[in-house]
Amino acid sequence: MGRVTDALEEDLILKLVGASQGRRILDVGCGDGAPAAALARRGAIITGVDTDPRMLAAGRERARAETVEITLVEGNAGALPFPDETFDVVLAVTVLCFVDDAERAVGEMARVLKPGGRLVIGELGRWNLWAAKRRISGWLGSPTWRAAKFRTATELAKLIAGTGLTVIARRGAIFYPPCAACATLLAPIDPWLGRCVTFGAAFIGMAATKPQQ
To answer: Whole-angstrom distance between the N-terminal and C-terminal Cα of the chain?
Structure first.
């Protein structure tokens, strides 16, 4: 189930990013560098930023294992350590649900994005069986899921629009429940569903552009 789910999410994010050859891309909350490595293989100039030194170490190990070049920097989404208008694309996957001030984090992503550049957000959806299971885990004591905040596509779009960016695409993924048999059965139609609707999706992808000055 994990492989099926990860593949669907990665495919959605890569499609929202679009052409990446030669583009400067920032992966905010890069974790162990999986999306960054996928984009580096496509020819992107990748920088990843994360607060956790252990994740950055895992990202460097991944880059070595996959023989790709990724610049990894320790930093916070609420105060990105980069000058204004540095990147062609800024990417953040399952980051906003865990930060204390999502508005500030998105504002920082917009700040370091070049005019005409693209912001791509991937977030955990609010109304689905996966979110329900995670909420229950939080109630039962999981510190990770107790702190998480799940959003709808409308809420994400409003958050992004508040920075002055224009949302150009919203997609859903992972419409099946957390069950391996369901993942295998429903994965082939998942991309089609995601183009039609976001309600019920465990994962929501959104792309926005920064106006040209």
So the answer is: 45
Three-point CA angle 186, 189, 190, nearest 5°: 80
Count Cα atoms within 13 angstroms, Cβ side, for 95. 28
Distances (CA, A) of 116 to 90, 110, 113, 211: 12, 11, 8, 6
Closest CA to 107 of 196, 198, 208, 1: 208
Query: pTM above 0.85?
Result: yes
Question: What single-letter amino acid sits at 64?
Answer: R
CB atoms within 10 A of CB 121: 28
With 0-12 / 13-18 / 19 or more C-beta atoms within 10 angstroms meaning exposed / middle / buried, residue 111 is middle
Tokens of 71: 């610049």
Question: What CATH number corresponds to the domain at position 165?
Answer: 3.40.50.150
Sign of CA dihedral 105, 107, 111, 114: positive
pLDDT in tens, 87-132: 999 999 999 999 999 999 999 999 999 999 999 999 999 999 999 9
Residue range(s) defining the domain that contains residue 81: 2-209
Q: Tell me the torsion sign for CA atoms 148, 29, 128, 7.
A: negative
